[in-house]
Amino acid sequence: MKINIPEMMTFITKEKTESDFEIAMTTIENYFLKEEQYIGGMKEFSIADISAFFELLQLVLLDFDYSKYPRISKWMKKMSQVPEIQGGK
Questions:
Q1: Which of 19, 33, 45, 70 could make a disulfide contact with 49, Cβ separation 3.0–4.6 Å?
Q2: Residue 65 placed within a domain
Q3: Is 21 inside any structural domain?
Q4: What phi, psi does 14 have (nearest 5°)?
Q5: How does pLDDT run across 46-74, given as a tens digit for each residue?
């Protein structure tokens, strides 16, 4: 199946996309989750964590392996246990 990319988007390459993704994941891993338990820089989760969790959760659909990012992996597991994430149970 061929995907037609609009001419104005031809500057987007697979290599650039992969590079940007790696930068984003490394930033989350080494900056936002460096010393704190949660992305918002707090000891408790915030709307920033909820938003980031659902964005990163989409990678599960691509069978993404989080093991390269141990802090993100640990945080994803912790966030999946938050009652508000589980539907308020």
A1: 45
A2: yes
A3: no
A4: -60, -40
A5: 999 999 999 999 998 888 888 999 999 99
Does the pTM of the predicted model rise above 0.85? no
The H or E element spanning position 80 is: helix 70-80
Query: What token pair was written down for 13?
Result: 């390459």
Q: What is the pLDDT of residues 28-52, one digit of tens each?
A: 999 999 877 898 778 889 999 999 9
The CA distance from 21 to 23, in Å, is 5
To the nearest 10 degrees (0 to 180), the angle between helices 47-57 and 70-80 is 110
Residue 72 lies in a domain: yes
